[in-house]
Every structure is written in structure tokens, then in C-alpha cells.
Amino acid sequence: MRRPSRRSGVLLAALALPAALAATPGPAQAQADAAPAPAPHAPRLTRSAGELTLTVPAGHATPGYQLRVTTGQLALTTRRSGATVLATPTGDTGALRFRTAGAWQHATRVTGWTWKNGALTLTAATTAPGATVRARITPQADRYQLDWQVEGAAPERLGLAYDLKSAGHWYGHGEAQTPDGGPGTAQPWPLDSGQVVHPAFGPASYYMIDPFWYTSAATGLRVDTGQTMDVAINQDKDGLGRFDIESADAYKATVFVESTPLDVYRDYVGIVGKPAQSDATYRQYAEPVWNSWAQFYTHVDQAKLLDYAQDLHDAGITGHALQLDDKWESNYGNMTFDAKAYPDPKAMSDKIHDLGFDFGLWVTLWINLDSDQYRYAADHGYLLRDAADTAKPCTVTWWNGTAGIVDLGNPDAKAWYEGRLKSLMSAYGIDGLKFDTRFFDEKCAPHEGYKPADYQRLGAELADEYDLQGVGIRVHWDAAAHRAGFVTRQVDKGTGWNSLRASVTQNLAISTIGYPFVATDMIGGSSGQPAPTKEVLVRWAQSAALMPLMYASTSPVDTIDPTTGKKVVYDAQTTALYREAIARHARLAPYLWDQVQHTLKTGDPIMRPLFFDHPQDKAAYTVEDEWMLGPAILAAPQLTAAPSRPIHLPPGQWYDVTHGKTLQGNTTLPAYATPLGTTPIFVKLGAEGSDKALRALR
């Protein structure tokens, strides 16, 4: 973990090889600068037959490590305390790989190296005739920088590959595309327990992703790029992690080597930044937000929305806001209410306020081609241009048609869009917004002076001017997204048990790539699937009550099944248990707010895997259905239809909230009974905040 005292640069001092070592013959030609004697804790380089070894000594707060470079066939092996903690594969896959003329090639024999000014520079032959790889490795106390490029060829992609097992289990990434339905219905945890096949992994993606991965061996990888990547983790169960960039630019990666996964996470946050604030208020952490999407989808109107609000109010199902989602516009981009469906929007807004809710509205920067505003926006240059032909606007197809995208890089376009937005809000008493869709598309060209990745920052800056009402926004990759402190909502889930489980592991993934204020997808799921069963809806509410925020849509009072159009009425027990989950979350609000303040100081996630707090507990690294909520609460809700579940308790003393007794940890409870009204929760006695947690949960 980075400490300010280590920024003096001492660890990057140059080291002179002993004369005898420098003169030793070998397969690679070596050069070393004639420097004075190294500082006591500086990295040092040694050489043996077929291998170069960089050794970084342990420091006051760092474990130290070795990086072994095999020279006969270029490979990189990172070791700590005598054990391998990360290694590239051997054989035909290659550590440093590139694609040229449609075929994959890789670095082979190291043909030359220098150790100068604290950096090891390597030259290697490749499997491509006439092409070489030049790599530069710069060691620091708790990480090393690996930069490399291809010379003598024009690659289409550059790639870095690792042997997954060398580092134990893998985490990070964010919302993962998988062959079995991810991220909507599957999110493997750890990542290597399933397969991740994510060919369009980039800054313009709708998915909440960052090019950062970390491991149970307390190593980590950050790829510094603004280009689209092709990421594959255990594809076809091959045991490899492949991290390819669709660019010929130099590949820049940071490899972290720490004592615990939490230390790796903190190092990463030290680079990308921690939240400067939380965009959600105390009330938004304490109460759920209700959104119309899964309740009605696009079959919504003024009468239905008001009936929805009234039913929630009458049933005592509290919330701080009610949001009207898609579809309310006369056409996408018009920013005018559909007069037939919403005859009096101001009266609708007033009634929602009278019921005790703030009123929110779904918005997008995408303007459909048949919108009243499309021609005006196109004629004034307010839309992103087509990357293949910048003389015309870029058009993209989405779930509501074909559209252009307002160009936030154009100050006039941004001012035009925001002026219309603020007029709409003022006219109808709209308190907040749910920004949806993306701010950029790979088919489009960025505004002059901008790169595609800049649109994450531009989107974050736009959204930061509005109350997002606890549903947050889906910006990522750029440091501005990390520092803005937005709530992050997940991609749409299904309505079955598999999606409920994915909502848990996905929050663990999102919160541990630097977005700590997480909510699930709407409680009960959506994705146009049949309405959730009573059991799924209740269990989802119980689970969400033990997360930082509650994001709700499907009403426990009644709902509409989108596959049949018929009303679904849940029984009184459903309403009572949902209400109980909301009340539990409200009681936890003081504890949660403390965690928010801690996160603003440290960047640490609020909802996190057990091993962040208990790194020595080996069993914790594969637990996928429990989490820590701050340092004191262990949540283990039932996420299946089974009558009981196993629960792992890390070392320590734990208070079992359900049974009112203290248990000794470092054990697994094999069959904890979970009738529908029971949510297993444990408080770690003596942990920071445990007194406040006990008061809320007893």
C-alpha cells in the first residue's frame, strides 16, 4: 500500500551491477550504468543462467517481492516470500503477445537488456519475422510498471496473458459478460470460477467496468488505456487470463504486489482516486427509491403512476422518491410529455409530492431520428459525428429505435441540452433525474480535442449538477467517475434466483473496482421477464436491505406481469416482509452513514467480500453469497429456494442477530434454517461500529 513517505524516489535509485556479474557471458547482451553504491532498500538486479531477477526489499509497510524474467523464452514470474504470486504462461501463448496480419504472435528469446536509472529494459525476438518487442520494467516498493511495444511490425492488438492459477483466485473487472448470461443472470465470483468472455471491454461500454483485476495472492493488474480491450478469463476453461488492447500504442500496465487484497485495492484507488463526496443524501441511504420501470415498463401513463404511488403510500411502503422511467416523452429527444398518456403532468407531480415522495424523471441524451428535435440538433452540429464520415451525424440503434447522441464535448450542444432539461424540471416540479444510456458510442467520433474516454468525464460532470435520487449513474473508467461519488446501479437483471445471486456478486465486483456506493438492479429484477415470485421478491428486498442503498420497482402491493399484461397481487405476508426489510434498512442508516464518511476518507468499499476484512481466512475467498457491510456486519441472506443455507463465519466473536447468541468464528454453520421471515445477520463484536449495528439490528 502506498505511503507518502515512500514518494522520495529512493526506491528508484539506479543500481550498478558488480563487475564480475556484468562480465558473465550469457544469451543476452547486458549493459549497466556505472552508478554509486545503491541505497539500502533500493531494487537490485541479479543474473543467473537463463534468468534475470529484480529484487525489491521489504519496507516498513510493504512485503517486498522478486520479479524473475526468463530469458530463453520471455516470461515474467512475480514472487513474494519465496512463493509465486503471479506468472505469465509458458509455451505458445506467450507473455507479451500481439496480432498482426490477422495472426497472433508473441515475444520469444530475450536478445538484449539494460539496467539503468532504476528501470530494466528488455529486447526480445518474436515469432513474427522482422519484429521485435521492447519492454521497460520499472520497479517500485509495492508494484512495478510494465510498458512494452512492438517494433518492425504494425500490430492490430497488443496482449498480456497470465496463468490464472499462479495467483490463486481473480476478482475485479466489474460487470462481466459470460457465456451463461452474464451480467444479467450470472456474475462469477471469483471470476476464475466461471468464464468471462468480454470482447468489447472499453470506456464507451454501458457496463460498469474498469481495467483492474486483483487476486487472492494479493497481486493486481491495472491496464492504463483509453482503448477498447478484449478480455477473456478462463475462456473455454483454459486457465488463462488474456488482456488484449485493440491498438498498436504501447501497452502500459501496473502490476501490484502487496500483503492483502485490500492493500492492492487501496493502491489502485490511490491512482484512480476516491470519492470526494457522496451524491446521495442521508435520506436516500435510509429509504428506498421507487422507479416505475419493472412495474410497468413502457406501458405506463399518468393514471397508472398515480395509482402506484397511492398504493405504496397506503400500504406504508415508504420511500424518498418516485421516478417515472421510460416512456413518458412524446418521442425520444422531444423532452415533452406525451399529451395523451399524461394529460396534466404538473398535477401528477403535485400529487406525488403530496404523498411524501420527491418526483424524478428518466432522461437520455439519445435523440431518435423521428423526434421533433433531431433535425434541429443535427443542423446545429449538436450531435456526435460519424467516425467513418464526420460530415454526417453518428446514428446508433438502441432498444427504442435509431438515434443520434448529444455531443457533450460541444459546449453549445451541452448548453442547449441542459437548457431544455432545466426548463422541463422547472415547469413540472421535477426534483431529480435518472440518466440512462451511454454518453458515447464507438461508432462515433469525439469532438475536436477530445478522446472517446473523455466522455465518461463529460457525462460525470453533467450528471453531477443534478440530484440522481439514489439510483446514480453508470459512468466508469475515468478518474472523474471515481471521484464524483455517484451511486452505481447495476445492469438490468432477470427476475429469477440466478439474477438475485448475480446482484450480490456483481455488487462485490463493482464496489471493489472503486465504486463503493452500490445498489442492486431494481429489487425483484426486470428485463421484461415474468414478475418475480413472492419468495424471490421478499429475498431480494431482504438482501438489498443489507446493502448501502435500496432501489425498488416491483410493488409488493401489486404489479403487472409484462409477459401476460395481467395484474399480480402478492399476499399480505409479502407486503409485511417487504415493509420489515425497509424498516431494517432505515434502522441501519446511522451505521451506513458512518460507513459513507469512512469511505470518503479512505476510499474503502462499504459492501465488500469477507476476505477484505479477514485476509488470512482461506475459506472466505470463495464465499459468493455473504458479504461484510462495513467492519461490523456480516450479511448472509438466503438467495435460493432452499429451507436452510451454510454460513461461513471468519475468525472472531459474532453475535447471531436471529437467535440472540454469540458464536465463535473460524467455522461454518452447515444448515442455518432460513424460513421466509429469517435473514441471517451477524455482528462482529468489538469491531468498529458494532455497538451502533447491534442497536439497529436487535
Percent of residues in beta strands: 25-35%
Number of strands: 41
Please identify the structural class as seen in this structure.
alpha+beta
Q: Which sheet architecture does the biggest sheet show? A: 14 strands, mixed
Work out the radius of gyration. Answer: 27 Å
DSSP summary: helix tally: 16
Shape descriptor? globular
Terminal Cα separation, in Å? 37 Å
Write the layout of secondary structure elements.
Layout: H1 19-22, E1 29-32, E2 44-48, E3 51-56, E4 65-70, E5 75-80, E6 83-87, E7 96-100, E8 103-116, E9 119-126, E10 132-140, E11 143-151, E12 157-163, E13 170-174, E14 196-201, E15 209-215, E16 219-223, E17 229-233, E18 240-245, E19 251-257, H2 261-272, H3 282-286, E20 289-291, H4 293-296, H5 302-314, E21 321-324, H6 345-354, E22 358-364, E23 366-368, H7 374-379, E24 385-386, E25 396-398, E26 401-405, H8 411-428, E27 432-436, E28 444-445, H9 454-463, H10 479-484, E29 488-489, H11 497-511, E30 518-519, H12 534-544, E31 551-552, E32 559-560, E33 567-568, H13 572-587, H14 589-602, E34 607-608, H15 610-613, E35 627-629, E36 633-635, E37 644-649, E38 653-656, E39 661-664, E40 667-673, E41 681-684, H16 690-697
Parallel strand pairs: 1-8, 20-21, 20-31, 21-22, 22-27, 29-30
Antiparallel strand pairs: 2-3, 3-4, 4-5, 5-6, 7-8, 7-12, 8-9, 9-10, 10-11, 11-19, 12-18, 13-15, 14-17, 15-16, 16-19, 17-18, 23-26, 24-28, 25-26, 32-33, 34-35, 35-36, 36-41, 37-40, 38-39, 38-41
Helix pairs in contact: 5-6, 12-13
